[in-house]
Amino acid sequence: MSVMMTAHNRWEVCNGDSSSSKNIVFSAKTSHVIQLKTKLQVFLANNVNEDICDFRVEGSWTESSCVIYAGESSTIIAQMHKKHSVGSLVLGKDKFMVSVYPHVDYAFIVALIVILDEINH
């Protein structure tokens, strides 16, 4: 998967190294340009109208955690917590603890965490 930022705080994730619009798997965008807490709306490629998001991410990077939900529901599909260690403080190497629920694509969750990391750095 390749992850790239487009205009308007929108991220597109494509199959392989492609950046072609025909290879987009999903896109994610922030709810607002300035956010105190991270909120992402995630749209699968076949959701062309984007009236309702397919997934949403809510969290706080300062609190080093987020929760990923299915659509607008309260159904949690994954959770992430950043682990604080000497290495992360001194060497700048972050470690994450991720809980992925059954029947959820791990690569999808990792791509969302990469986007969150990029947004917050």
TrEMBL record:
InterPro entries: LOR, LOR_sf, Tubby-like_C. It comes from the Eukaryota. Belongs to the LOR family. This is LURP-one-like protein.
